[in-house]
Amino acid sequence: MSDSKKFNVIATVILGILVVVTMVPILMIVIASFTEEKTLLRDGYSLLPGALSVDAYIYMVKQGAIIVRAYGVSILVTFVGTLGSVLITAMLAYPMSRKAFKYRGILTFFVFFTMLFSGGIVPSYIMWTRVFQIKDTIWALILPNYLVTAFNVFLVKNYYTNSIPDSLIEAAQIDGAGEMKIFWKVMLPLSVPTIATVSLFSGLAYWNDWINGLYYINDANLYSIQILLLKIMNNINALKQNTGSLMGTGAVSLPGTSIRMAMAVIGILPILLIYPFVQKYFIKGVVVGAVKG
Per the database record, which ranges form the ABC transmembrane type-1 domain (predicted)? Predict the structure, then answer.
């Protein structure tokens, strides 16, 4: 067996082991969501549970108003946030990639500076709540922390620099295209891999976000699926109180552990469904965009 084949076999075995190790926690969550509550409390988590049950999912269907609302908030925030993040990131990266732009170095420095230093949690909270007054609004889940990140900007900027030749831009200028037309008609269509990669990064960040909800949201109507899960994990009574206030019902019996697992399954399901469609762009977008330009 040649050295290259040996390497491929060893690499395949190692990666296979890593995949199994990575999948075990997800399988545990899924199985736990279908395990009887009493069995979970008595025996703990297991890949082979003693008693199966769909009580958690039945309960979620019965209390669907809260969960559906949280799911809707997460979908809305992820869609709007990702769209805005990708658009702003691509537009900011464009002048940074243009050698003819006079203030390219200064702009690049300011973006890079944010990767090293930040204002901190307290100043950020004061700015967003007192200056922009976004507390208990949907914008509190969209604007802070995730709308523009320096890493994504440099990823797109490097892709522009390394993958789109200057001669193509010069040809567009000779044909009379302005900067906006070059950006929309030349740069974006040729940047599908990195745009898909940044979209995945932004979408994951928005979907998994609970920090913004924890800091800026007190209104139960604006709970995302992640912050609702956090509330349940911190205090099982939170869902009971929200159920009573939002649906006009009294106290209800909650299947604590299993419903947490069921909500976790619902939380990761969209990502598992979307990732296969962007996977083919992911590696190219990261590898090319990560090369220093």
Answer: 71-278
| Nearest of 168, 178, 154, 143 to residue 92 by alpha carbon | 154
Euclidean distance between CA atoms 18 and 20, whole angstroms: 5
The pair of structure tokens assigned to 35 is: 């395990």
Instruction: Reduce the DSSP state of residue 154 to 3 states and report it.
Output: helix
- pLDDT tens for 233-244 read 666 555 555 555
Cα 72 to chain centroid distance, Å, stands at 15
3-state DSSP: the chain helix, strand, coil percent, rounded to 5?
75, 0, 25
Tell me how far apart the alpha carbons of residues 279 and 271 are, in angstroms, rounded to a whole number: 12
Q: In 3D, which of 118, 264, 270 has the Cα closest to residue 206?
A: 270
pTM above 0.90, yes or no: no
Of 64, 67, 24, the closest CA to residue 47 belongs to: 24
Does 50 or 227 have the greater pLDDT score?
227
Q: What is the CA radius of gyration of the chain?
A: 24
Q: DSSP readout, 7-67?
A: HHHHHHHHHHHHHHHHHHHHHHHHHHHTB-HHHHHHH---SS-SSB--HHHHHHHHTHHHH
Contacts of residue 32, defined as CB under 8 A and 6 or more positions apart, other chains included, come to 40, 45, 49, 257, 258, 261
